[in-house]
Amino acid sequence: MNIDKANSKGFTDINVSPPAAKRTEKKADVEKQETPKDKIDIQGKEEWGVGSGIKRAWGGVKDWVHDNVTGHSVGPDGEKSVSRICSDYRSTHKDFAKAGAAVGGAVGTAVGLLEGYSEVKSDQVELAYESKDIGDPKLTGYSHYAQEDGHYERYYTGTDSEGNSQYSERYVVDGYWHRFSPNIRYDKVGSYKVPGYNHSNKWTPISAGFAGLVGGTILGGVLGFSVSMINKLVRNRVSAGQKK
What we know:
By secondary structure, the chain is of the alpha+beta class. The chain contains five helices and four strands, in the order ββααααββα. The longest helix has about 40 residues, at about 205-244.
């Protein structure tokens, strides 16, 4: 506190002021106060939009494919996926596939033979000419190949500690086989035509029957396997529906 005596009337002016250090501390305390901010908890907030919709749809598709196609687990009511049905009834599927392949191969062969015979009846042979080139040969060099020829000779080297004879072998070169082959280039200088024939229909009873056998076997096997799978799948779904 500072007291100043100034006027002649006996009055005293008293100026009271807080220390500068204290004012600074109060100012610092005020500056430390931060403006309150709103806190928003977005946990559990559902996202909306095209991207999130696509993600949800894709997740649903993956779950459906796993439960009905690729998964191996059994549902609460006994529902099985296609993969599980394929593995559980493997022997049955093989039997159906074999039966379908046999029937399909027989039918395909019969159809192919009939088609081949009909093709032969309507086949027509046409005269056709095939063009051949006339080439002028030119020697451009040669190729050389040498092969070594020889034999092994066995000779006595002594005996071992037990008195057994010891022998050794060596390879002796007798000579070399030399082979030469010419490198010839043919330059076209002309052409000529030779007569031939073409069939209007390419199928014969043998080729058509073989094609029908292969195609019918493959198609019949696939159909037999598919029928077995569909049969087991429908039975499984009906049985699971009755348990609900």
